[in-house]
Structures are given as structure tokens and as C-alpha cells.
Write a structure and sequence with these properties.
The structure holds two protein chains of two kinds. Chain A is mainly α. Chain A has one domain: Orthogonal Bundle (Arp2/3 complex 21 kDa subunit ARPC3), CATH 1.10.1760. Chain A has eight helices and no strands. By secondary structure, chain B is α+β, with helices and mostly antiparallel strands. Chain B folds into two domains: 33 residues, no CATH class; 172 residues, Beta Barrel (Thrombin, subunit H). Chain B has ten helices and twelve strands. In chain B, the strands form two sheets. Chain B has a six-stranded antiparallel beta barrel with strand order 1-2-5-4-3-12. Chain B has a six-stranded antiparallel beta barrel with strand order 6-7-8-11-10-9. In chain B, strand 4 and strand 5 form a beta hairpin. The longest helix of chain B is centred in the first third of the chain and has 22 residues. The chains are: A mainly alpha, B alpha+beta. At the A-B interface, helix 1, helix 3, helix 4, helix 5 and helix 6 of A face helix 1, helix 3, helix 4 and strand 1 of B.
């Protein structure tokens, strides 16, 4: 019974990731804000990781990254794999996950992931006007992505708090 | 200090990371390896989502006059029924013909050009220069480095190809480069995107002579040198002439004739004479 519930939970997670990817990638569905579009799969990876143990968090993070990379294995797959692990480990140390404890971790994670992408996909490519481009596009992308963390949070909130609180030593 | 690196889960994360890096290196430049889910299984869903959704802003805009709109809906429904009767059976073919008719002028100018019409099915959130994913891939004859155009002119180049989808890098991207000449003066240069001007949907004409006689409004065309693009494709109009702040060399800011940010359909040039000649030269 518990096993089938766990399977259903992970199926639901995969469906959520697919839905986030399709919404994120659909042209003109989400409006651009200051030249940035949100990376929904990154926000989702962080929320999922907050309520999972390390191994599921790593797998779900890698899956989110695969879709964030446009269904290829690239920067986001690697970055969200590490982020999933780090967020899961950090949030377990808090015991109960709340939005107020998750948001600082999410802010650091999203900022690190997007800044890393800026470095690898823009600065190291030798493109011009990097500082102004970061302010014009990447900063809004970080904030816009973070705005979706509270949106996803309620959907995945309940289980880990009930199952895992107090188990971490 | 808590030694997280001794945990089994940390080793698991490292092995997943290693696998991702190996897969990333193996699949670099080959979109088919990693693109099974997104390119093959999800492409129809994305196509459906694209056709069924507009901007959220459009949905949130309230109607102006409900009664007038209601009447209009009834009239349009009647007209719709009539049109469907007429078009039954021919709808798909007609739509495709319509899409390709726009390029008739280009085809007429150069009969060797082969075209495949494409639709935009994805705009990557990480894309900075209006690049997009289109609904045709290698099974439709699309290949890497094929030029992408609309009836208004050059849009970009195919940068990645999967079986049923392809990724297009636009003229606004700094990684785009094409030989060009200015129709009025014959000045030649390179069309090369730049982050500094891409926000306005503009690109640049660089490597132009310092004795150039260019002026705003001049039409920039592809030169066809190198065999990557057919000669004479309209790339855009010059909107300003400026000097590079580091090198001091002149460059022209070009406004593409197509609104690339709002593009929904285009065409890929899969073959043309210049490319054949270049390929023959290369093999010799």
C-alpha cells in the first residue's frame, strides 16, 4: 500500500515536471518580464528536493535539468542534480519544511544556477555587453523563477513533513 | 563538522553527475541522442499547446461589447460552417500551399531553392536571442546550417537538428554569422549578432570598410559567398552607423525586416545552387 502510494507520488512528480516544461517552453504563453522568462523546471526541482530525501531529489533534479536543457544533457542537468542534493540535505536539517525556510535556500540555489548558466552560456562564449545583459535579462530571470517557488510549494507540501520530521539526526 | 561526503547518497549524486557529464559529452552536437522525449514524444503535445494557447495577456483582456461580440460569433459560426463545407478534404493541402505561396517570390528568383515550411513550437526560457524550436527535423530534410527565412527575409540558421524538431539560431545571436553586401553601394561585410543591440531585435553588419558610403535605410542582402546562404536574401535595413568602442571600427546596426520575437512560422532552405557549387569545390 505504502509502496504503491510512493509510486503514485513519483508518477505525479514526473507529470508535474512535464507540465512545467511544456508551459515554460510554449511560445508566448508566459509573458516575458524585463526580458526574462521563468525556468519553471528549476523552481520545481527545488520544491521537490525540499520534500524528498537525497537520492529521489537527485533523480528528480536531473530530470528537471534535462527538460530545462531542452531535452538534452547539458548545463542544467548537471546543475540541478547538484542543487537537488544540496537543497534536500539542507532542508532535512531544518526538520519541518516551511516556505520561510525554503525561500532562502531557493534564492541561493536559483541565483547560483542562473549565474552559472550566465557564465557558461554567455561570458565564456565571449559575447559582448555581459554586465548590462545580466542586469537586463538574467536578474529578472532569477526573480521570475523564484516567484514560482511559492506557487509550487503548496502542491508538494504535506507528505515529507508528516513522514520525515524528526528523523534527521 | 558533518561529513556529508561519506554518505551513500552523496556518492549516488556524484555517480548521477558523472553519468550526466558523460552523456552530455557523448551527445554534444547530436541532438538525437538526448532528445528522445522532447523531440519525438512531446513534439505533438507542444504543437497542440502552441496552436491552442495565446498570450495570457490576451486571455485576461476583457471583451469590449458582449452583445456585439455575440452577434459576430453567430455570423462567424455560419460563415465557418460554409467554409468548412467548401474546404472539406482540401484543408491541410490548402494550408500547406498557403504557407509555401508566401515564398513564391523567393523561389521564382532562384529556382534551385528547396523549401520546407516550419512552425515555431517552443521558445526556450534560457534563450537570449529569440532562438526557437521548430516542428521539422532531419526526417523532413532539415539539416544543421540550413538558412531559415520568411517572406520578408532572413531569420537565422538551423543550429541543432533532431528527428522531428530543429533549433534555430537567429540573426540577433552573436553566434550567427553570414556574408552580406549592401544593395545600393555594393559594400560588403558580415552580419553578426550582438548582445548590445539584440534587445531591440537588431543585429549588426561588421567588417565594413572605413571608407564606406552607407546610410540609414540601405537594404542589406546576403552575399552568397561561402555557400551557406543563397545570394540576395534580404537581411534587413540599416538603422544607424556606429563605431566599436574598443576597436574604433565602423559597424552598421541592422533592423531585420521580420519581427523575429513574434515569429510563428517560417521556412527552411534545404537546398540551393550556391551550396551545391560550394560542396563541389570543397570535394575538388
Amino acid at each position: 500500500m505504502i509502496r504503491s502510494a510512493a509510486v503514485m507520488k513519483y508518477i505525479a512528480c514526473v507529470i508535474a515536471i512535464l507540465a512545467a516544461y511544456l508551459i515554460q517552453d510554449a511560445p508566448h504563453l508566459l509573458p516575458e518580464v524585463f526580458g526574462g522568462k521563468p525556468i519553471l523546471t528549476a523552481a520545481l526541482a527545488i520544491v521537490l528536493a525540499a520534500f524528498e530525501k537525497e537520492i529521489p531529489a537527485v533523480i528528480l533534479g536531473a530530470l528537471c535539468g534535462y527538460f530545462a536543457d531542452g531535452c538534452t544533457f547539458g548545463y542544467y542537468t548537471a546543475a540541478l542534480t547538484v542543487t537537488g542534493y544540496a537543497v534536500s540535505m539542507t532542508m532535512q536539517s531544518y526538520g519541518k519544511v516551511t516556505l520561510s525556510t525554503l525561500m532562502p535556500a531557493a534564492t541561493v540555489s536559483v541565483a547560483a544556477v542562473v549565474c552559472g548558466q550566465f557564465l557558461t552560456g554567455f561570458v565564456f562564449m565571449g559575447y559582448d555587453s555581459a554586465p548590462s545583459f545580466f542586469i537586463a535579462h538574467y536578474l529578472s530571470r532569477i526573480i521570475y523563477t523564484l516567484a514560482f517557488v511559492p506557487v509550487f510549494f503548496p502542491f508538494f507540501r504535506r507528505k515529507r513533513n508528516r513522514q520525515n520530521s524528526g528523523k534527521w539526526k | 563538522m558533518y561529513r556529508f561526503y561519506e554518505k551513500k547518497s552523496f556518492r549516488f549524486m556524484l555517480s548521477i553527475l558523472g553519468a550526466v557529464l558523460i552523456l552530455g559529452i557523448v551527445s554534444a552536437g547530436n541532438r538525437n541522442v538526448g532528445n528522445l522525449v522532447g523531440g519525438y514524444l512531446l513534439a505533438p503535445v507542444r504543437r497542440l499547446l502552441t496552436s491552442g494557447t495565446g498570450s495570457l495577456e490576451d486571455v485576461l483582456t476583457p471583451p469590449a461589447d458582449t452583445e456585439a461580440l455575440q452577434e459576430r460569433i453567430v455570423l462567424l459560426e455560419e460563415e465557418n460552417r460554409r467554409l468548412y463545407d467548401e474546404l472539406a478534404g482540401y484543408y491541410d493541402i490548402k494550408a500547406e500551399n498557403e504557407a509555401l505561396r508566401k515564398y513564391y517570390g523567393i523561389k521564382e528568383a532562384d529556382e534551385s531553392i528547396s523549401l520546407v515550411d516550419i512552425r515555431v513550437i517552443g521558445r526556450d526560457a534560457n534563450e537570449n536571442f529569440y532562438g526557437f524550436t521548430a516542428d521539422k527535423g532531419s526526417r523532413d530534410g532539415v539539416a544543421v546550417n540550413d538558412p531559415v527565412i520568411t517572406e520578408n527575409g532572413l531569420v537565422g540558421i538551423v543550429s541543432e537538428v533532431a528527428l522531428s524538431t530543429c533549433k534555430v539560431t537567429t540573426v540577433c545571436s552573436p553566434s550567427f554569422c553570414a556574408g552580406a553586401e549592401v544593395g545600393r553601394t555594393g559594400d560588403s561585410g558580415l552580419i553578426c549578432g550582438s548582445a548590445a543591440v539584440s534587445d531591440n531585435g537588431h543585429t549588426r553588419l561588421i567588417n565594413i570598410s572605413s571608407q564606406n558610403t552607407l546610410r540609414t535605410g540601405d537594404l542589406v542582402l546576403t552575399s552568397g559567398y561561402g555557400g551557406s546562404f543563397p545570394q540576395g536574401l534580404k537581411a534587413g535595413k540599416i538603422v544607424s552607423l556606429e563605431y566599436d568602442e574598443y576597436t574604433g571600427l565602423p559597424y552598421a546596426v541592422i533592423d531585420p525586416l521580420e519581427n523575429i520575437a513574434a515569429l510563428t512560422c517560417a521556412a527552411v532552405i534545404t537546398d540551393f545552387d550556391g551550396r551545391k557549387q560550394q560542396e563541389e569545390q570543397d570535394t575538388e
